[in-house]
């Protein structure tokens, strides 16, 4: 009897911790402690005060001048050496290798990061190795190097700036919005959502890679299903666990909870779980091999018992469509 009771208690505790159980309550109502740790683009953890004062002057500057965002173009003609694209400077566009006949992918980093942060070359190389596309790496370091609260508060303005840049790109080259795919990681995931919103949800795809959790649970500016024709989220470090960095709740048309959405194979830290979102995505661009099964409940996600329709996670299908919550399982090592 004691053994049975002990097993029941352990199983109950595991259920509460192992997956996104009752996400509407557990995540959206989760209250982060005032002091947390959050990583920069190189995986170094920093102390964050979620009640730190907002540096409003920086947000005002980014709002007034979208040229604070920088854009760097890579194509198969210049796969490693970027060409700067400048908003309201037609010559920078026309003199570059940008080809309006090709799909355009925009990659956006997170907090305390820049154009050289690891995820950018990894995703860039995966795309150019598999497809003839325009890859634009956005650098929003002017805001991203601020304290976390300021950076988070300024994300909508930076996202609107990206939307305005893409509208300018469309006006100069005629590249259609339905040939654009916006990919963002952590705070960058919410940023690309706001960019898509600025364009009226006309971009083909928005992919949110483990969208940041702190300050975003009930934030109306977070990425949402209306930000593109198809919006996908890849969750790898659910935010209602101790130290969880991702939001861990449904924010898209299709939300993939990889390996349950909290702990990833081979990872012992939250930053490893968090970063695996962009590693998994880059692998799917190359192989399109990670498949999720639709789940009818949080319990199915937790217990790896999802048996609904299947949908490939990630990839570069600009005509992709899916709706619901999916569990996808991976292996420990690349290509997962």
UniProtKB/TrEMBL annotation:
GO molecular function, one term: lipase activity
One of the Pfam families matching this protein, by short name: Lipase
Keyword Secreted: yes
The keyword Signal appears for this protein: yes
Compartments in which it is found: Secreted
Keyword annotations: Secreted, Signal
Domain Lipase: 62-309
Gene Ontology terms: cellular component: extracellular space
Biological process (GO), any one: lipid catabolic process
Signal peptide: 1-18
Matching SUPFAM superfamilies: alpha/beta-Hydrolases
Membership in a protein family: Belongs to the AB hydrolase superfamily. Lipase family.
Descriptive protein name: Lipase domain-containing protein
Organism: Mythimna separata (Oriental armyworm)
Lineage: Eukaryota, Metazoa, Ecdysozoa, Arthropoda, Hexapoda
């Amino acid at each position: 009897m004691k053994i049975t009771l002990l097993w029941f208690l352990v199983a109950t505790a595991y259920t509460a911790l192992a997956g996104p159980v009752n996400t509407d309550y557990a995540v959206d109502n989760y209250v982060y402690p005032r002091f947390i740790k959050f990583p920069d683009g190189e995986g170094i953890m920093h102390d964050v005060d979620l009640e730190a004062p907002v540096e409003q002057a920086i947000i005002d500057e980014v709002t007034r001048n979208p040229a604070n965002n920088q854009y760097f173009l890579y194509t198969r003609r210049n796969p490693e050496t970027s060409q700067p694209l400048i908003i309201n400077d037609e010559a920078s566009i026309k003199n570059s290798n940008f080809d309006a006949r090709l799909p355009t992918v925009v990659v956006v980093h997170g907090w305390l990061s820049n154009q050289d942060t690891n995820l950018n070359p990894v995703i860039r190389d995966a795309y150019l190795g598999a497809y003839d596309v325009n890859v634009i790496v956005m650098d929003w370091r002017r805001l991203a190097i601020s304290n976390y609260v300021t950076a988070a508060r300024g994300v909508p303005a930076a996202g609107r700036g990206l939307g305005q840049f893409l509208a300018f790109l469309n006006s100069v080259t005629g590249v259609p919005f339905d040939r654009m795919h916006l990919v963002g990681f952590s705070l960058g995931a919410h940023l690309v959502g706001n960019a898509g919103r600025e364009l009226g949800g006309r971009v083909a795809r928005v992919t949110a890679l483990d969208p940041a959790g702190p300050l975003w649970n009930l934030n109306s500016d977070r990425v949402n299903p209306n930000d593109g024709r198809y919006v996908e989220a890849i969750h790898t470090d659910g935010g209602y666990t101790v130290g969880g960095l991702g939001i861990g709740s449904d924010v898209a048309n299709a939300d993939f909870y990889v390996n349950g959405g909290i702990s990833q194979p081979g990872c012992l830290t939250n930053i490893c779980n968090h970063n695996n979102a962009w590693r998994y995505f880059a692998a799917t661009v190359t192989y399109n091999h990670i498949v999720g099964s639709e789940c009818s409940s949080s319990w199915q996600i937790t217990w790896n018992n999802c048996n609904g329709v299947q949908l490939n996670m990630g990839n570069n299908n600009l005509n992709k469509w899916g709706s619901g919550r999916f569990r996808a399982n991976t292996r420990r090592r690349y290509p997962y």
